[in-house]
Every structure is written in C-alpha cells, then in structure tokens.
Amino acid sequence: MTSKQRAYLRSMCNTLPAIISVGKDGVTDTLADSVLDALKARELIKCGVQRGAPVTAREACEALCERLGAEPVQCIGNKFCLYRPKDEDPVIVLPD
Known about the structure:
Elements: H1 3-13, E1 18-22, H2 29-42, E2 44-49, H3 57-68, E3 71-76, E4 79-83
Parallel strand pairs: 1-2
Antiparallel strand pairs: 2-4, 3-4
C-alpha cells in the first residue's frame, strides 16, 4: 500500500465510529472472528482498546493484521483502523 492510498483511507477513517473494542481478554479468537466479519462487510473499520486491556492499540493492530491479512491504516492513542478489500467487487477504490 502506498502512502497516498494510506492517506486516502486515513481521511475516510476520521469520520468512522469505533465498532470493535478490545477488552480485558486481549486479542482472542472470538474478537478476531468479529473483526473479520466487520471487514468483510465494510472493508474499513475503526477499533478501540479499553483501559484494562493487556495489549496496547499498536500491539492489537499488529496481531489482528497478521492473523486476518489486513492492512493497518493508522494507530493513534487507543484507536486503530484496519483495511481489507473484499475478494469480489470491492467498495473502496484506492487511488493509484
């Protein structure tokens, strides 16, 4: 992913609400399944990490990206955004 594409996704991510929260159990299989379902439906999601979580936002982002084959878009504070295009007919078209 180029920096221009990442900047485009970051601008889209600014208006999104955090739909997934990493809680006290950290990155579990159930959480990964929920994130995968959300990525299949939306392609771009924002996640948050709660205060009592055993992982930081960056650690959770890296773990989920590695596990799901997603791309990290940004990680600021306790929030992070992930992108994974749909296999067929992607909704978000990245600039060249």
